[in-house]
Design a protein that fits this description.
Length: about 400
């Protein structure tokens, strides 16, 4: 395909053969589709400006993260660019899909990979509805787009989700939430010490204090944050080695286990550092890292991107102790919340962070009677399967915890 295929308002021209978008109907709005390739200097400036004026802080939609993600991208990924009166107001990577869960059904999805913990498009503040309307209208006009648009990794009731619901309603179609999880989040105006005391049970605080004292008996223990005096490549190498030495390495899922994921991680960390969005913290024992954490910053928020610890020292819970030390990130003054990026019901981080963030997947039918009928049928099958799973799931046994 050409580097960029532009889809203007008006006219009846057909999209390029491999384009997954059609004609946007909003006045003065244009949808472009491009390969997820090397970003030229002019577009880099536009992308960075959009990120600085985004409706929702999201490091996973920023340019440096997307550039690093090229290491993991399948060839079919394309980047939708939405412009209004020439100004870039939206960006979303998309990919065609032939199966909707277990159902054979052609559709379009936002592209996200295992190491990307949000999937929302990057939308300019104040233009969210216009951007979504243009995206949906473009897909409506493309016969090859299939039946529906499926979006994963949205923050429930955030500005991007609310705008999508509004745009879908204005176009006379549903925006169904088809999956929902809650993961640990930290959101507070308390100081680090006050938050720790208010959130973590007294009994647990006492136990963690005992573990820290036992760790201090093993040698020289130091908690360090990456500074300009440190070598970033050395910190990256230390993290990759630490993670690979544990169960992820044995399972083949550590970042260092494949050249692609190792290159991806190096580029993410380097890109975040260059953009001023990186925070790394570690606990050292006798000069060697025994726990490390990579945070990606998007003030007023932050994302706990990757963590690793020395499993030979698991009896001291160095990863948990590092999370406690990481609370000092709140003392920066520009960070008031952190997204754990953890799986739902993660026992460690759930015990330390008191808030929860709901992450959802949504599906929206594209225009046309046949598409709507297929969407309705697919949703009925999806809902039936969910009901059956709920009926088969074991009921939890109530428990009572003591803080004694």
């Amino acid at each position: 395909m050409n580097a960029v295929t532009a889809i203007d308002t008006g006219g009846n021209h057909a999209p390029a053969p491999d384009a997954l978008c059609g004609i946007a109907t909003a006045s003065a709005t244009q949808v472009e589709i491009a390969a997820l390739g090397v970003v030229d200097a002019a577009f880099a400036v536009e992308w960075d400006a959009l990120a600085s004026d985004a409706a929702e802080p999201d490091v996973f939609a920023e340019r440096w993260f997307a550039e690093a993600s090229r290491h993991l991208a399948p060839p079919a990924v394309r980047l939708l660019r939405v412009r209004r009166s020439g100004q870039l107001i939206g960006l979303m990577p998309i990919v065609p899909a032939t199966r909707y869960g277990r159902i054979p059904l052609r559709h379009v999805e936002n592209w996200a990979h295992y190491h990307r913990f949000l999937g929302a498009p990057l939308l300019r503040r104040g233009h969210e509805v216009a951007a979504w309307t243009a995206i949906l209208s473009a897909l409506d006009a493309d016969r090859d787009a299939g039946t529906l648009l499926h979006i994963s990794g949205l923050v429930e009731h955030g500005p991007v989700h609310r705008a999508l619901v509004e745009a879908a309603q204005a176009l006379g179609r549903p925006c169904d939430t088809v999956h929902r999880i809650e993961r640990a989040m930290l959101a507070t105006d308390l100081s680090p010490d006050a938050y720790y005391a208010a959130t973590v049970r007294k009994k647990k605080r006492k136990e963690l204090g005992r573990l820290r004292s036992r760790l201090l008996e093993q040698g020289v223990v130091e908690t360090r944050r990456l500074t300009s005096a440190d070598s970033l490549p050395q910190w990256i190498d230390a993290f990759l080695a630490l993670e690979r030495a544990g169960w992820k390495g044995a399972a083949g899922s550590a970042l260092a286990c494949t050249p692609e994921t190792a290159a991806y991680f190096r580029d993410v960390v380097t890109g975040a550092h260059r953009a001023g969005k990186l925070d790394m913290i570690r606990i050292d024992l006798d000069g060697a890292a025994i726990a490390m954490l990579v945070n990606l910053l998007a003030p007023p928020g932050a994302f706990s991107f990757k963590t690793a610890f020395d499993e030979r020292l698991s009896r001291f819970s160095p990863g948990v102790l590092l999370q406690i030390d990481n609370l000092q990130l709140l003392a920066r003054g520009d960070i008031s919340w952190m997204d754990s990026c953890a799986v739902e019901n993660h026992p460690m981080i759930n015990s330390l962070w008191g808030e929860r963030r709901a992450i959802i997947r949504v599906s929206i039918p594209l225009a046309g009677a046949r598409r709507r009928a297929l969407f309705t049928a697919a949703r009925a099958l999806e809902q039936g399967a969910a009901t059956l799973r709920a009926m088969r799931a074991p009921r939890p046994v109530p428990t009572v915890e003591s803080d004694a």
